[in-house]
Write a structure and sequence with these properties.
The chain is of the alpha/beta class and 381 residues long. The protein is 26% helix and 30% strand.
Length: 381
Amino acid sequence: MLTRSGIVVAAGALILLAAGWLADYPELVALGFACLAALLMAGLWMLARPDVSASREVRPHRVGVGEEAHGVITVTNEARRRSPPIMAAESAAGRRLTIPVPSLAAGESHQTSYPLPTGRRGIYQVGPLTIGHSDPLRLMRVGREYATWSTLYVHPHIYPVEPVPTGQTRDLDGPTSSSSPRGGVAFHSLRDYEYGDDWRLIHWKSTARLDKFMVRHNVVPNEPRLMVVLDTSTGPYTDRSFEDAVSAAASLCVAAVRGGYPLELHTTGGFSSAADRAIDSTGALLDLLAGVERTADDPGLAALPRLVPADSGVSLGIVTGQPDQHLLAVLPAVRPKFLMVSLIQFAERFAGPPAGLRGVIGVNVHSGAEFAAAWNHLVRR
């Protein structure tokens, strides 16, 4: 296949031959034949097509915005002769990447890595991988496509912030239930001994009275749960303010999980994820936020009534831009269903005091960094 340079040389050959013949100018004819000879040599070079196998990995698969991620290509020469220098190419995050691979002896492998673009949040498909080679003058190029795809998750930026406030003091001896997870310090009831139970939990008086081993059933007390809702409608945002809002929602989610709170994440567009008290559960939350986008048919804050939980032990944090006032009017209606309601609003051009809504605390900020400072000041005071 002719490259752009090859097309120029081929056109030049035709023009030179025609001009030399019409003008009876042998030097032009000679130059035209030289161009044809170069194309012929390039065609012969293409016959030495490399016989290679190739694989590609992405390391790591999940990074934050601006963090390093690399593609790693391993190429092996499967032929009995030395392969010519080749070029590997693939697409990632809307960019075309080209990676040179040196000449390889028979059976030799070569591994090379290259940086992947991580400047924007998103979920990106890396691939397909194309292995090709060109002649020394870059007049022709042939390639073979390998159907290898990898997924790169670029998570939003995380700010160090406090979790959504609950308005309650966390009590290690708070209320419990039979469905509470085991392993805490709050006593719930006595139960029969099970193999593997800690002998220090045996209740000896009950054991003597019932003539069987009884142990204290300690659980994690019922604690307030947190809910973060991200407005994914188009109206309240500019492109920049939406990215700041996604980062704020991600920061609140990470803070909740690190603080040991059960958490639910919802978007007004209908996507959701949940996390328990394990720090590893942030992966699913951040994966969801890596791919979230604004949509025109998203109801925005009008979706809040359908997100109201069955019990009242939930504290709500809402992240939005500058929605219409009639959409903000839904907050007083849902406020009694939650322990507390917090409102974070982003505005790229103007950020005044937060909307005055009774029973709702909030901040109104320009950027993500300003959000982190204002939020921490509000929650810690």
